[in-house]
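pasting for the record
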Amino acid sequence: MKRFYLFLLYKSKSLDEYKTYLSLLKEKSQVNDAEIKALIEEYKATERFSIASKTLFYILNLNTQHYEFINKHAYNLTGVNPEDFKENGTKILPEIIYYSDYKLLVNQVFPKLQNCFLELNEAQQKSAVFELYYRFINKVSNSLEPVVEYSSYAAFDKSFKPKISTGIILKSSHKYQGVRGILRAKKDGEMKDLCDHRTSLEKEQLSKRQIEIIELVCQGYTKSEVADKLHLAKGTIHSHVKNIYHKLNLKNQAELFQFKDNYL
């Protein structure tokens, strides 16, 4: 009974996150068949490339939140058949994205990237590319697969609301214990990083004061110097550092530096 309760609790939380996802990314714009057919024919050609065997290509209707196209090799990366993607649409994402990553994407990364995107002019929005780092749970092997996703909007309506999103997802060499989102767009004639947000479940457990201490320690300050700068007792700083190492499951200062480089 306890396991069943936990399963229901997990499903309930996933539904809550999915509702948040829809509030951010579902659009009212209608897509005509001609636009979809042209994109599908273009994407079908990708299946001839050798890289496609370990890559997921998709075309997403932002109004219906259904995948108009998923390449046949998507199974190799996710353990999910293309037919299941098409049948379930984006409802399948909470099932194949590692839950803590999905939660951080929906509640932290997507809102920040979306706010940044809405500040762009029309030309910049057309050029915009989203880069996401997170982890899939392969439904067959049950293993965590670090992936990187590149996506952009392929079509807009008359009021310049996006209608179609296209993307590519492939295995990543970055071993993030969390998520990262980058928005790039053309500015002053070249593509530039306009927003870069990374976070982890561990980072979300830290207080603002603890993050401040990590940044100072990684700048080379001693505990005594950190205490002086923050007007705190040295013993208080020592307790904070001890709690930081415990929360992040760190063994040494080198791992603290690595955490700071990855997430702060």
